[in-house]
Amino acid sequence: MNRFVAAERALRSAAPHQLVDAVRGVLCDDYAAKAVDVFMADYGLTVLRSVSVPPDPPESLPVHRSPAGRAFGAQEPFAEKCGDGRVCVHLPVTVRGDRLGVLSVTMPSADQAEECLAELTEIAEVLGHELIVADRDTDLYLQARRRERLTLAAEMQWQLLPGRSCSRPEYALGGQLEPAYAVFGDNFDWSATADHLMLYITNGMGEGIEASLLTTLGINALRNARRAGISIADQAALADQAIYAHYRGSVHLSVLLLDLDLTTGRLQVVDAGSPQMLRLRERNVTPVGFEAQLPLGMFEETDYVAQEFHVEPGDRLVFVSDGVYGVAAPGGETYGERALARAITSTSLLPAAEVPGAVLRELSGHRGPTEPDDDALVVCLDWFGRP
C-alpha cells in the first residue's frame, strides 16, 4: 500500500472528532512532517482558527495578512520558510469550490516539501470531504469557525446555507452574510442538477429570532416545492401559501428566485420582493430590473409569473439585499447604485467566492463606525458557459 492510499484510508476510517489527529499522524509517520495543523475559516472570513480541543485555546491567523491566508485566498499551495531549513506548506482545504480552511504542514526541507507537494494537495482535498461528512456527527469543526458566539438567529441562518461557495465548469458562486455573528433575516440557497442551477436570494421581514423563523419556513417551503420537481413560479406560489397559512399576512418574505439553464444560459426569474440583481459585463455594471411581484405570504393564493433573461459567458451577476443598497453613511447618503457599481467594478478580477466579502468590506467603510441596523447579503454568480 502506498503512503497516499494509507493517508486516505486513515482519514476515511477516523472518528469524526479525530480527523486532525488522523491527518497529523499519517503525515508525520509517512511523510516525515514535523508539525501539522488544520485551520478553519471563521464565519466572517476574517481569520483562520486552528482546530483544537477545549480547554486548549485556538490559534488565529488573519485571512488577509498571513501565509496561510494567502493559500486560502489564492486557492493554491504556499510555501513559507520556517528556519533551520524547514518549510511550512499551506494547502487550501476546499470541497467543490466551498472554501473551508487550510492544512499547514511543516516539512524538514524545501526538497522534501516539493517532492510530496502533489500528494499533500490531494490529502488536503480528502480532508475537506471528510470535514463535511464529520459535521453531521460533531460540533468540533463548527466551533473552530467561531471567533465569538453566534446569536440564536444567526445559528439558524448559517445552518440553512448550502455552503458559502461552489464551482463547476459552467459557473462559480459565492455568498456572504453580515453581520456574520448576528445575522437574522437574510439568506441564500442553491441547488444544481446536470442542466440547471436554482438560486434563491431571501430577505426576511422583521428582526432577531422572528425574522430567522420566517426565513427558515420560507427556505424549507421553497426546497420542498423544488424537490417536487416543479417550476420556480409554482415554487413561489406554494411557499407563498405556506407562509400565509402560518402568519395570515402579518409578515412576508422578499425573495428573488432564479433558474439558470446550464446548456443555454437562459435564466428564468421570479422577482418577489426587495433583493436586487446587477450584471457586470465588460466592466459595465447594469442594474437588471424585473416585473415586481408580491413578496411571499402577503395574500392568500398569489399567482407568480417567471420572466426570462439571457446571460452570456463572461457575465457576472451580483445579488444584494436591501441591507446593502439601503445603508446610509454618517452624513445620510445611502450606499446606492453608484457606490455599489464601483464596488462591483473594483472587485472584477477577484473570483466569485471573494467578491461578496470584498463588497461588504466596502459597505462597512461607507457606513462608518455606526452599528448596522439591518442584515446585508451579497451573492456573486460568474457564468462561464458550458464547455
Name its key features.
single chain; 387 residues; alpha+beta; 6-stranded antiparallel beta sheet; 17 strands; globular
Describe this structure in words.
This protein has 387 residues and is of the alpha+beta class. It is built from twelve helices and 17 strands. The strands form three sheets. The protein has a six-stranded antiparallel sheet. It has a six-stranded antiparallel sheet with strand order 7-8-17-16-13-14. Helix 8 (208-226) crosses helix 9. The mean pLDDT is 93.
What would the average pLDDT be, to the nearest integer? 93
Distance between the termini: 37 Å
Strand order of the largest sheet: 3-2-1-6-5-4
The residue ranges in which pLDDT falls below 50 over 5 or more consecutive positions are none
Largest sheet: 6 strands, antiparallel
In helices, the fraction of residues equals 25-40%
Number of helices: 12
Helix and strand content put the structural class at alpha+beta
For the secondary structure, the number of strands is 17
Protein name: PP2C family protein-serine/threonine phosphatase
Domain PPM-type phosphatase: 168-383
Keywords: Hydrolase
Organism: Streptomyces xiangluensis
List the helices and strands and how they pair.
Layout: H1 3-13, H2 19-30, E1 35-41, E2 47-50, E3 60-62, H3 67-74, E4 78-83, E5 86-95, E6 98-107, H4 110-115, H5 117-134, H6 140-144, H7 152-160, E7 165-168, E8 171-178, E9 186-192, E10 196-204, H8 208-226, H9 232-247, E11 253-261, E12 266-272, E13 276-281, E14 284-288, E15 307-310, E16 316-320, H10 322-325, H11 336-346, H12 355-367, E17 376-383
Antiparallel strand pairs: 1-2, 1-6, 2-3, 4-5, 5-6, 7-8, 8-17, 9-10, 10-11, 11-12, 12-15, 13-14, 13-16, 16-17
